[in-house]
Every structure is written in C-alpha cells, then in structure tokens.
Design goal:
By secondary structure, the chain is an alpha/beta fold. The protein contains seven helices and five strands, in the order E-H-H-E-H-H-E-H-H-E-H-E. It has a five-stranded parallel beta sheet. The longest helix is centred in the last third of the chain and has 19 residues.
C-alpha cells in the first residue's frame, strides 16, 4: 500500500459535520498529503469559524498536491469517454470533474486516495486505475 495518503473531501465532511472516522483517522498509516481540489471544495462549504480554522491548519500542516496541466487535459478526455460510454448529463459530468482531478493528481504522486464516496470514484477507476480505499 502506498505510503502517501490523500483524504477526499467526503472524509473531511464526514469528520467535521458528523464526527465520523475518528478511529480510522487516528490509526491511518502513511504520510498525509492534501489535494488543492479538496481544499477548494472544503473552503467553498466552510460556514463555521471552526471549519475555517481547521482548513487553515490542514493547509499549513500537510503539503498540497495540485493537478498538473496533464491532469487537467486527461480529465477532459476521460469525461468525454464517460459521456460517450454512459450518456451522463452535463451536470453529472460536472460533479465528476473535481473527483476526477483529485484521483488523477493523487495517482500522479503514487498516493492512495481515501474516500467515503465509493460510487463516483469506482466509476473513475474504470477509466484510470489508482489506489483507492473506501470507508
């Protein structure tokens, strides 16, 4: 299993809003990194001062992976494949886009992605394999 770990937005939301995954987070093996896409999604939804404080700490305590130009281009290509294969609506493709960028940038670094959003990431994995752990 990869020693680098990226937590998806869904894990942070589960933790911040519902206090889920505490034991798993405490026993998580690997070196945690953060995705700039995840940070963007979390900042977009941060309403409480404690959530914003958490995000500032997250940004300062864990190096951040950002999608490369190649990741952006590949994400568009994969979304076109998915649209042709599955007939997903533009809205569904838009929803998948950020998840796809998280997966591709995590994959580029050889990291493991941890999520509670099994469905979308399993769709993505059919098009580009990456190390996925679902909680």
């Amino acid at each position: 299993m990869s020693s680098l770990v990226v937590l998806d937005t869904s894990i942070f939301i589960d933790y911040l809003r519902r206090r889920q995954h505490q034991e798993r987070l405490d026993s998580l093996s690997g070196i945690m990194r953060t995705s700039s896409v995840v940070l963007s999604e979390l900042w977009r939804g941060a309403r409480k001062s404690q959530e914003r404080k958490f995000l500032l700490q997250l940004e300062s305590n864990h190096p951040v992976f950002a999608p490369t130009q190649r990741n952006w281009t590949e994400s568009g290509q994969i979304l076109a494949e998915i649209a042709a294969d599955r007939g997903f609506t533009a809205g569904k493709l838009r929803d998948l886009h950020f998840d796809l960028l998280i997966a591709l940038s995590t994959r580029s670094h050889g990291a493991r992605l941890v999520t509670s959003n099994r469905t979308d990431f399993e769709w993505i994995q059919k098009y580009r394999p990456f190390v996925l752990e679902t909680w």
